[in-house]
Target: Amino-acid acetyltransferase
Amino acid sequence: MENPTQFVQWLRSVAPYIHAFGGKTFVVAFPGELVAAGALPVLAQDLSLLVALGIRIVLVHGSRPQVAEQLGLRNVEGRFHNGVRITDTAAMECAKEAAGELRLDIEAAFSQGLPNTPMSNAQISIVSGNFVVARPLGVIDGIDFELTGMTRKIAADKIAPILQTEDNLVLLSPLGFSPTGEVFNLTMEDVAATAAIALHADKLIYITETPMMSDAAGEEIRELSSHQAEAVLQANFLPPDAAFYLRHAIKACNSGVDRAHIVPFEMDGSALLELFTHDGVGTMISHENLESLRQATIEDVGGIIKLIEPLEADGTLVYRGRELIEREIEQFSVIEHDGVIFGCAALYPFPDAKMGEMACLTVNPDVQAQGDGERILKHMENRARAAGLTKLFVLTTRTAHWFKKRGFQPATVDDLPKDRQHMYNWQRKSQVFIKSL
Model:
């Protein structure tokens, strides 16, 4: 090993993710283009690693290029409308053949077991079946989609026990069945999103043929709330394929899935990089109720004062009078529910040092331990990044361990921006913690 220290540091850095992901359910979907590009064996190795870490995986494959190949062999031209295949009888036969071939390829990829490879000692069992109930898509814009369908239901009650068994992986194909015995051709994106919703999955991950998502100015889009993602769709600057993925990611997040990721497969190990590094290599969409987690306004001053007064009284927070809060209200963000402020924090930027101070992080004791403190922290980190800051620091006398658990490192007063050093209260003797963004 050339650099054992670097390896140890890396392993320690991924440990929090390993602890967080154990026992979670991930729906991972990939297009037929990934198989055509020869990337299936590597993806199987990476997903086998996730299974070994105790993550429950539901795998959904696409088949568009394989169906197109089968149609070409029959000299039949494929038909599409708004990017969705119109499936006639000939196309359905091709879809069935493609799905069968891909299932065998996937089972073979997960059956690798050569010594000195990532699949050594892996014993993954692929389980598939009639888990997808579908209905016809019908006639849209005057176009009859014939045997093209959409997912109506996922048999989550049958899939969940399978995932409970160690080393089991469930495979879903983009084919669904009606109660009358008909077969419908579905989109991989629809099957995956519906499965993630039905299984209450913690993550929906699309491993895509599309490049990294970029905004209208060409800047990479790393993270979006579902509300922001809807605005991106309405702006209509994304390529059609990327927009199709994003639309289904939004659907999943708005229906209870914590996170959806859109990750290009062109980079080796992209799924692992997305999951086990801070910034990832794709675009993450999360559901955030923007009406409840937002920047504060002058109308929130009374609610903030009521929230922080008990903590000021016992010395946890520095006293802030109404006039000070009114002057600095633009620095505050709040969590609101039914008109009641039950969480807040403030961000004070120091642009010259590219640092920001997060202060007054408070959550109502009645709703603590529900993750709202972390929601506020994430929100403030995003505000700091948007302001061009690269580091966030806090001064605390009571909550050092909480910040340590969330990536803040102990520091000294000398590490603070010069202007903030002059304002440091040496009688209070607050501990300093800094986090790189």
About this structure: The radius of gyration is 25 Å. The chain has a mean pLDDT of 91. The domain at 19-286 is CATH 3.40.1160.10 (Carbamate kinase).
